[in-house]
Amino acid sequence: MIRDQFLLGMDNEIIVDLFAGGGGMSTAIEQALGRHVDIAINHDMGAISMHMANHPQTEHYCADVFEVDPREAVKGRAVGHLHGSPDCTHHSQAAGGQPRSKKIRGLGWVLPRWAGQVSPRSISMENVKQMQQWGPLIAKRDRATGRVLRLDGTVAGPGERVPVQEQYLIPDPRHAGRTWRRFIRTFEQMGYTVEWRILVAADYGAATTRERLFLFARRDGRPIVWPEPTHYRNPTRRQKAWRPAADHIDWSLPCPSIFERNDHWLTPRCAASPRA
User: Fold this and answer.
1) What is the pTM of this model?
2) SS3 at position 78
3) Which pLDDT score is estimated for 96?
4) Angle formed by the axes of helices 178-189 and 110-118, to 10°?
5) What is the DSSP letter of 58?
6) For the stretch 108-145, what's the b/e string if a residue is b when 16 or more beta carbons lie within 10 angstroms of its beta carbon?
């Protein structure tokens, strides 16, 4: 069913994986469709090196996704499917009260950019469910004084104007979801039918209860078909139960206590690669 949904005529089209990382989604696409991803893009050399090792047939770009010209990358070939998993950290609830980056939250806009320039037949995106609340950011304010907080935690002086790049930015609750709705309309205005759902990995046989937002868009007139669950949290007699993580653990392997082992390997040895 998955292959039929994606691949009517896909033999003459290419597949592109933005934010490809080490290749997890590329591997999933290959398993589902029976063919490799043609183009993979990621800004981190460590991640793209792993992708190169796992997917040697793929053409790789180690660059910021916005620096890659879609038309130049596809070289005149039709794009059958485009996938993107933009950075979720600055949408995630797990970030709590941490400052948010407008640039990182805006990475999802690369998908409409590709849609507008090379017209993929279908598009998928995966992110945290909080992306549905995507909206403008606002400066966090000190509770005692009402004045703007800087990134370093200091409070602006009376009447001081703090440059936006120095402000401690948080989502503006008055406009939650405003950017998300515009994001969806952008695809629709280009002729795409768009649907999205929150799916739980455990419902499909994975040993994790992780919830994720999945968006699917297509412009070929074919219906969007979502998978039916194969496993259940509270199964009936004829249903399969959620799989425990223990299924993937080899209990015969030694696992010394953290209080008994030398964890010198945890010490950072080099600076993390900055986002391009």
Assistant:
1) 0.84
2) strand
3) 59
4) 10
5) S
6) bebbbebbeebebbbbbbbbbbbbbbbbebbbbbeeee
What gap in Å lies between CA 20 and CA 37, rounded to an integer? 10
Question: Per-residue pLDDT tens for 151-195?
Answer: 999 999 999 999 999 999 999 999 999 999 999 999 999 999 999
Tokens of 107: 């990475």
Query: Locate tokens 């994986």: which residue?
Result: 17
Please give the domain boundaries of the chain with CATH numbers for all domains. 2-135+174-266 (3.40.50.150), 137-171 (no CATH)
> pLDDT for 107-121, tens place per residue?
999 999 999 999 999
Q: Do 210 and 201 touch, CB atoms closer than 8 A?
A: yes
Question: DSSP code of 96?
Answer: T
pLDDT band at 271 (very low <50, low <70, confident <90, very high): very low
β-partners of residue 39 are 16, 59
